[in-house]
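Morning run. Coffee first, then this:
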Amino acid sequence: MSANTFEDAIRRLDTAAAHIDIDPEALEKLKHPAAVIQVSIPVRMDDGSLRVFTGYRVRHDDTRGPGKGGIRYHPNVDIDETKALAFWMTCKCACVGLPFGGAKGGVTVNPKELSPMELERLSRGFIEEIADFIGPEIDIPAPDVYTNAMIMGWMMDEYSKIHRRRIPDAITGKPIPLGGSHGREDATGRGAYYCIKQLEQIHAWKPQQIRVAIQGFGNAGQSVAALLHADGYRIVAVSDSQGGIYSPEGFDVPSLIYAKNTQKRLQAVYCEGTVCEAVEAQRITNAELLELDVDILIPAALEGQITAENASRVRASVIVEVANGPVTSEADTILRDRKVLIVPDILANAGGVTVSYFEWVQNRTGYYWTREEVYNKLRDVMTREFVSVHRRATETGIDLRTAAYAQALQRIGDAVAAQGTQRYFRRQNRG
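And here it is:
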């Protein structure tokens, strides 16, 4: 990730602000994180040695409620990335109307190099270091890149031990037996799927004719792939961190998911039960996948994948951002000029934080919903907010990203103004 990721992220504020009436103070406030912490996490490794890892937590804004955002484990995690991700979370929660602000955290580590026990020590150690910085009414972490339900369970348990009482609402994305919510594991991909279904209605798509490429075949990528495949969409290319596979005829997505999750590598296969056979496919790189001749491109990996360098070679007519920040602001301009429709990350991937909100509510009330109830509530939120953003874009002649940010900024600006700004205080003083 580039050194100016946060600056690149907040550039979009001014673009969106031009389309709404927002107090300048609200805009200025959003350009500065509310709080930032960097910690050192000493971990005793399995061989007896001691390693010290660096962790971060950023609470960007809590005007509309407690901070909310994931924790990622990745070698490239740094403070600039974490600030940008926290900013996006602020906008995401406001865009879909959740009573949260934005936050994010991470540890600079390659989790694939750690044993399960080392991973647990790291996770508990991180919570020990940031325990005073988070909490169910302050900042609620969740899973992100290379973290999962079990890691969230360790973190919730460690936070509870520190405070001498069980506090399930301190962390979301937990396993079901530890207070997790049904539907959380596929919420991010499902939220994007609901957005695509709205586009399907608007553009009268016939799913069997729509070719889809998905960069990133982790939890979110698998979920949206499975849902689209079940509806008849042709998933012609998928990739993971090692590269991708492409077949113009499309893949049997359940077979790909089974092979990926059982053998830990992406293979072009067709499975009958547990017996899988190789099928014909072309090996491609992640970069090549982004430039395939498809109808829908779904970046579901990491930030900054589509840049000024490769944006002109992207041939998809629709991009659905399941990853956070996969398109840089410079690339955005190029794609907009080429009439590429982009469903922005702060809308497209908001399903995850929405069901995290549901989990937090369930933890606080002690009343839990069925999977069907969670899916119905998620569909209602995603559909309502997509329709609202799309209507704003259509009525004002702006792109979906600008409309989504304008919707978020309007809600944040209203919350800031409700506490008084210079306009209010100047008027009162004159009175």
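The first helix runs from residue 5 to 17. Good start to the day.
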